[in-house]
């Protein structure tokens, strides 16, 4: 899952938000000095990723991407799932999306000083520029994915993933709407951040 989904699945605390994103920034290498509340959030991040990556529906969704982009289909699915979460936000959360975003940004900002340097840069940019606004449209999703393609250190054909998403939009949306409630249940059943 991508950043918005990880924040959605976090607890409404600064440590939980930090931990739930830390998994994308070398997570376990930074654990020594961190409190258990951050470690529990990191464990939740890994739980979400493991469930997502092994889920049959997500594996099926990868088939909607052209052969030259299949290697990075998981990345594209993570981002487009954030798009669908935004599109269907009221189905999953009574709090208005803007309120949720700015509360999350405020919580993350409290922990920037202790984040790894790369995470500091990403979180500062994400909160200042509201990356999730970009995910509201497929054009924005396409731009985000093309930017990811530019950061990959080797030649790739990942750019243009929005074409595959547009062509299979309804199918991908259907996968998300079936999959995401199962993910929420899985996180709740495991309760790794219970009491945090």
Q: What's the Cα radius of gyration?
A: 16 Å
Our count of helices gives: 12
- What would you call the shape? globular
**Fraction of residues in helices?**
55-70%
How much strand content do the residues show? under 5%
Indicate the structural class.
Answer: mainly alpha
Question: End-to-end span in angstroms?
Answer: 22 Å
How many strand units? 0
- What is the H/E order? HHHHHHHHHHHH
Low-confidence stretches: none
- Overall pLDDT score: 90
Biggest pleated sheet:
none
Counting copies of identical and different chains, the oligomeric state is: single chain
Characterization of the model:
With 196 residues, the protein is mostly helical. The protein is built from 12 helices and no strands. Helix 2 packs across helix 7 (97-111). The radius of gyration is 16 Å and the shape is globular. The model has no long low-confidence stretch (mean pLDDT 90).
Topology:
Layout: H1 3-8, H2 14-22, H3 36-54, H4 56-62, H5 73-87, H6 89-92, H7 97-111, H8 117-129, H9 131-134, H10 138-151, H11 161-167, H12 169-190
Helix pairs in contact: 2-3, 2-7, 5-10, 5-12, 7-8, 10-11
Characteristic key phrases:
single chain; 196 residues; mainly alpha; 69% helix; globular
